[in-house]
Amino acid sequence: MIKLLASVTGPHEAGIVLEGGADLVDLKDPAKGALGAVSPQVLAETMDMVGGRRPVSAVAGDLPVLPDVVREAVEARVAADFVKIGLFPASRDARLAVIEALRPLANRTGLIAVFFADGDPDFSLLPVLAEAGFRGAMIDTIGKSSGRLMAHLSMTALGDFVRHARDLGLMSGLAGSLEPPDVPRLAVLRPDYLGFRGALTTGARDAPVDIAAVRTIRALLPASEASDHGVEPVAGRGDRILVRDFTVPMEIGAYDHERGRTQKVRFSVEAEIAPIGADARSMADIYSYDLILDAIRALAARGHTDLVETLAVELAETVLADARIREVTVRVEKLELGPEAVGIELTRRRAGGR
Ligand SMILES: O=C[C@H](O)COP(=O)(O)O
């Protein structure tokens, strides 16, 4: 489920966003910049008001990228469930020094790094953050009048960020002047959080939060895991691995004039496998079409074969020898005998059914 992060200025606005369905109460002072901080006092009052009903995050502030300055600001806010730390424009070394300085605080609060889409984001720091004990990473924008998140980063780049964070065990969040129509588009990328301030107010970013605006955003977020994962295989049908029109020269034919030379033979294969899991990401999770291509190359390399029928049966048997294959259809066509193509198509199924 994709959660709603709502940025508020203190306890009063926290009450409003909770009523509107926020999943994370995020404290910040929008009048003081992208990550303008509220005082530890306001943090304490807001935590009291929220009373553990939802996690509370606090931003560390629009700070220079200096280890001591940032560590001190985070230390003052470790009572929050999460503290968000901006990786503002700076050299890689300066950012690394800040990350390292925060390592000792990682078991006192949930550290969340904030990359800025318009502030030279360096996503190669994601593994460094994971190793230093950070709990998550998000992308926001610094310049709140210089366009929405997607004006600075493509959907592909945002999707890569979410995937990379997830692979590293980091929560991910996306924010940056987002508007209601952005929600379904970004929800497709499946970040853990979408974050809002401007879209939750009655007007400007530092105007008061408005319950109707919060509800509008809430209603746009996918309601449950079920709707997030509402994709399932069709009962009784497998997925299909395809090799289409793979043409190789080979020695083939029962006539004398077909011996001692090669001619073009075209192979097409459709192999049925069990439905691929939604979490398939690597070669280890799938049956590769390369195995079929290799089997065809081996047939072509082994010398003369009289009949295309022999090739088709052998190829089907080779493919079905892999226990993951349920059924295979093989087409073998000779391409140099006058018509466009002559050949055979056959289907074989694993004995014993599915
Ligand atoms: O953390 C999220 C931000 O508060 C988003 O603010 P914004 O929607 O005004 O850019």
TrEMBL record:
Pathway assigned to this chain's UniProt record: Cofactor biosynthesis; tetrahydrofolate biosynthesis; 2-amino-4-hydroxy-6-hydroxymethyl-7,8-dihydropteridine diphosphate from 7,8-dihydroneopterin triphosphate: step 3/4
Cellular component terms per the entry's GO annotation: cytoplasm
GO molecular function terms attached to this record: dihydroneopterin aldolase activity
Segments forming domain Dihydroneopterin aldolase/epimerase: 241-348
Classification via InterPro entries: 4HFCP_synth, Dihydroneopterin_aldolase, FolB_dom, GTP-CH-I_C/QueF
Keyword line: Folate biosynthesis, Lyase, Schiff base
Keyword Lyase: yes
PANTHER family registered for this protein in UniProt: DIHYDRONEOPTERIN ALDOLASE 1-RELATED
Protein name: 4-(hydroxymethyl)-2-furancarboxaldehyde-phosphate synthase
Organism the protein comes from: Aurantimonas manganoxydans (strain ATCC BAA-1229 / DSM 21871 / SI85-9A1)
Lineage of the organism: Bacteria, Pseudomonadati, Pseudomonadota, Alphaproteobacteria, Hyphomicrobiales
